[in-house]
């Protein structure tokens, strides 16, 4: 076995040992095809008030600007599909499945740090950085480029054997590896279930999302008042939204995760959302993704869908 194949096997074995469901590798190069698409998306203001999306344009497209001497982008998928849906609260309010348990940023970032240390122990000096939805990395594009799936009409990465209920994460490292073949075929075909089901018409043509209309954006990223145009369209989602994933035929292959940290928070089923105090919210959701809205934002969301 040559050194390239040996190092690649070490990377993929380490990913498996740490519980990642899929691992793909792509060469760290400029994402030439995605540059005009990103520019057009920003020019159309589909990022809404997520001003940070317009920052670091060059870094989003070239991982070598994030990690000096980068040679490889290792893309990873970590399952979060629950054993069963969380029963809706007494108020029939809904939160996205990814927020049932502990904040994935904590869980996966810790695994990625261990990952990098394992590579250094087994291979030697490996320089790089780890990312989990927290830096200007075009994670879906890299996952597709490394053969993990394709970008569906809802813009999420879809995997033929497991669907889309996965967190994506990356290691950008200065280690040359054997690269996987990208998935170039669109397996969505003529299906439009996600487009038809989206209550706010956020899913456009050509796998493009108008982020400013997405329920996840409205309930999490938007810090201002939710526009009145969306009254009656939120379907009682108060943190994120799973509609486009729930209707996707590929998610019939989703299997329950095995991550204890992602099990539903013990208090989720008992909480009376509308009566929750700020103190209780901060205490209960200290290590939860729900804290991103802060108590004020969460109460705004509840008030919007209930009144």
Automatic annotation (TrEMBL):
Reaction equation(s) it catalyzes: epoxyqueuosine(34) in tRNA + AH2 = queuosine(34) in tRNA + A + H2O
Cofactor descriptive note: Binds 2 [4Fe-4S] clusters per monomer.
Residues given in the record as [4Fe-4S] cluster 1 binding sites: 188, 191, 194, 248
UniProt EC number: 1.17.99.6
Keyword entries, A-Z: 4Fe-4S, Cobalamin, Cobalt, Cytoplasm, Iron, Iron-sulfur, Metal-binding, Oxidoreductase, Queuosine biosynthesis, tRNA processing
A GO-annotated cellular component: cytoplasm
GO BP annotation list: tRNA queuosine(34) biosynthetic process
Catalytic machinery residues: 133
A Pfam family annotated for this UniProt entry: Fer4_16
Gene3D superfamilies assigned to the protein according to its UniProt record, in alphabetical order: 3.30.70.20
PROSITE patterns the UniProt entry points to: 4FE4S_FER_1, 4FE4S_FER_2
Pathway: tRNA modification; tRNA-queuosine biosynthesis
Subcellular location: Cytoplasm
Enzyme class: oxidoreductase
Database matches in InterPro entries: 4Fe4S_Fe-S-bd, 4Fe4S_Fe_S_CS, QueG, QueG_DUF1730
Binding site residues for cob(II)alamin: 60, 133, 154, 157, 168, 216, 241-242
Binding site for tRNA: 223
Domain 4Fe-4S ferredoxin-type: 179-208
Family: Belongs to the QueG family.
HAMAP family: QueG
PANTHER family with a match to the protein in the record: EPOXYQUEUOSINE REDUCTASE (PTHR30002)
Function: Catalyzes the conversion of epoxyqueuosine (oQ) to queuosine (Q), which is a hypermodified base found in the wobble positions of tRNA(Asp), tRNA(Asn), tRNA(His) and tRNA(Tyr).
Subunit structure, interactors included: Monomer.
Name of protein: Epoxyqueuosine reductase
The organism of origin for this protein: Cyclobacterium amurskyense
This protein's encoding gene: queG
